[in-house]
């Protein structure tokens, strides 16, 4: 149980284009989804927290117009990197939790999406 | 400032031995602490959660301790196997379900 999928697993795009990454909870309803970015050998950096049906809460220093997050349902959240540039190249990971419930503290992570912007 | 420290140096141990990883934190009062495993190019996988009022938690070959006085958690893998080789992340939550992750410690178990 508690499986989270991400699509695509890997994407290469040209500078200036937009890329959408999907995060789905397959066998549970995720009241909260998180988006992280990770650089090689570095910690997960939280970008934003989203609750179903409401606007995402972005961490300090993360541009909300650059990284658009939509949490349309209890099983789907999307991250769109708009007008991507080479410095946006990174490993993006989503996680989902049933926050607000006992055991909801645990985050279940997707397999990650490797983005390379040329 | 708030900080989570995990040993950045890789830990190399022989198969069958016990691996012990350390997580130290400062300027936090976490409600609970979690350990995750991460393989290269993959998302983290949840292993164990321990609450502030718990001293120890076990799951199969895994054991976690939580000392809120020392502000430290120890993560043990007994009878380690080469398949245990991975990066192990410590994560703290102060409530509100926001979690802060350490940079992780890489473990290599040699056959």
Identify the notable features of this structure and list them briefly.
heterodimer; A: 118 residues; mainly beta; seven-stranded mixed beta sheet; B: 111 residues; six-stranded mixed beta sheet; 0% helix; globular
User: Termini distance of chain B?
Assistant: 41 Å
Q: What is the helix fraction of residues of chain A, given as a range?
A: under 10%
Which strand-content bin applies to the residues of chain B? over 45%
Task: Label the overall shape of chain B.
Answer: globular
Query: Main β-sheet of chain A, in a few words?
Result: 7 strands, mixed
Number of separate helices of chain A: 0
Mean pLDDT of chain A: 90
Q: Catalogue the unreliable spans of chain A.
A: none
> Could you give a short account of the major beta sheet of chain B?
6 strands, mixed
Structural class determined from secondary elements of chain B? mainly beta
* Percent of residues in helices of chain B: under 10%
Order of helices and strands of chain B: EEEEEEEEEEE
């Amino acid at each position: 149980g508690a499986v989270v999928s991400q699509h695509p697993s890997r994407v290469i795009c040209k500078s200036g284009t937009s890329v959408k990454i999907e995060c789905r909870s397959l066998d549970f309803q995720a009241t909260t989804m998180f988006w992280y970015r990770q650089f090689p050998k570095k910690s997960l950096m939280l970008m934003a927290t989203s609750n179903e049906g409401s606007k995402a809460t972005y961490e300090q220093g993360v541009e909300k117009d650059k990284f658009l997050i939509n949490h349309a349902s209890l099983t789907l959240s999307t991250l769109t990197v708009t007008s991507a540039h080479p410095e946006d190249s990174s490993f993006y990971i989503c996680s989902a939790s049933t926050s607000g419930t006992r055991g909801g503290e645990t985050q279940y992570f997707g397999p990650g999406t490797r983005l390379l912007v040329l | 400032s708030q900080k989570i420290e995990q040993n950045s140096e890789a830990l190399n141990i022989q198969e069958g031995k016990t691996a012990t990883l350390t997580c130290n934190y400062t300027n936090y009062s976490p409600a609970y602490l979690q350990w995750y495993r991460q393989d290269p190019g993959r998302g983290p996988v949840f292993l164990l959660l321990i609450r502030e009022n718990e001293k120890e938690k076990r799951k199969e070959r895994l054991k976690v301790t939580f000392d809120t006085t020392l502000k430290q958690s120890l993560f043990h893998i007994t009878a380690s196997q080469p398949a245990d080789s991975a990066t192990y992340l410590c994560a703290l939550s102060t409530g509100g379900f926001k979690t802060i992750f350490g940079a992780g410690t890489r473990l290599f178990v040699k056959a």
